[in-house]
Write a structure and sequence with these properties.
The structure is a single chain. The chain has 274 residues and is α+β, with helices and mostly antiparallel strands. It contains 7 helices and 7 strands; from the N terminus they run E-H-E-H-E-E-H-E-E-E-H-H-H-H. It has a 7-stranded mixed sheet with strand order 2-3-4-1-5-7-6, with helices on both faces. A hairpin with a 3-residue loop joins strand 3 and strand 4. The protein is elongated, with a radius of gyration of 27 Å. The termini are far apart. This is RMD1 family protein.
């Protein structure tokens, strides 16, 4: 029985695939939807044992290793940090991870399980489809976690409102709104959650496997949940903006009243003393 083990990690928000490809002498212009695949020739300079190992690099900040250990991906991560300055060195780069296994058993039926896939033979599209789904899943983990932090920030503002206080500045409000829009953009554009991989359009087997794995990892449901959360958070920030504008308008009205009062006082004083 042949077994391929997949380990996916989300290491950053974005990876410069063109810069990394250039470093390895790969003469190709990568678009945002392309995948950079590093095999033994590229990995042997990074890993002590690179035989039968492959790493899929995704533009949206994810690595998926085949037959790679956790320590292998750490070595690759540290190596990529030297090439792409946009990747921050973080000790918890395995925080968002997924594990899956492909088991090849002759005379078996294709079966999708929670932690592994059984198939009678290893078709060419199996590794790529599994890698794509795992990468999207761990990238969603990162976005879900970051969006939760934004929710906590907004919750603190609401607590101030409950106490009759509202001290958020226009700059901080703009940052909150920007983060929410960014996470919504990332889920749709970077992860391509609403898109099926190109290979599925010409290969029915690839399409079936992708849909089954996407359902297994709840990609659609998690996307809908994120979309709903971002819309709710944007509604809340719009309320904050309305309150901020109302406060600014009230201040302006008071300033006008004070100026009029000062003008009246000055006029009275001029008549009284001159």
């Amino acid at each position: 029985m042949q077994t391929l083990e997949f380990l996916a990690v989300s290491i950053t928000q974005e990876i410069n695939l063109n810069q990394i490809a250039l470093h390895f002498g790969i003469n190709k212009k990568y678009k945002w939807e392309d995948i950079l695949i590093l095999k033994e020739p590229e990995l042997k300079g990074i890993l002590k044992e690179a035989e039968e190992k492959t790493v899929y690099c995704f533009y949206f900040g994810c690595l998926v290793g085949i037959n790679c250990t956790k320590y292998d991906l750490s070595d690759i991560y540290n190596y990529l940090c030297q090439i792409d300055s946009g990747i921050d060195r973080k000790p918890d780069h395995h925080k968002y991870s997924e594990f899956y296994r492909l088991q090849i058993k002759e005379n078996s039926q294709v079966e999708v399980h929670n932690n592994y896939l059984v198939a009678p033979k290893n078709l060419d599209f199996y590794p790529k489809i599994i890698a794509i789904v795992l990468a999207r899943s761990v990238a969603l983990d990162r976005i879900e976690d970051n969006l939760e932090k934004v929710s906590d920030d907004i919750e603190r503002v609401i607590e101030y409102l409950d106490k009759g206080k509202f001290t958020i500045s226009d700059n901080n409000l703009a940052k909150l709104s920007g983060k929410i829009v960014r996470y919504k953009y990332n889920t749709i554009s970077y992860l391509m959650l609403l898109d099926k991989p190109d290979i599925t359009w010409n290969n029915e087997g690839a399409e079936i496997l992708f849909l089954e794995l996407a359902d297994l990892f709840d990609l659609k449901e998690r996307y809908e949940s994120l979309r709903h959360k971002t819309e709710n958070l944007m509604d809340i920030t719009e309320v904050f903006a309305m309150i901020t504008h109302a406060k600014r308008g009230t201040r302006l009205e008071w300033m006008i009243i004070i100026l009029i009062a000062l003008d009246i006082v000055i006029s009275i004083m001029e008549k009284a003393f001159f």
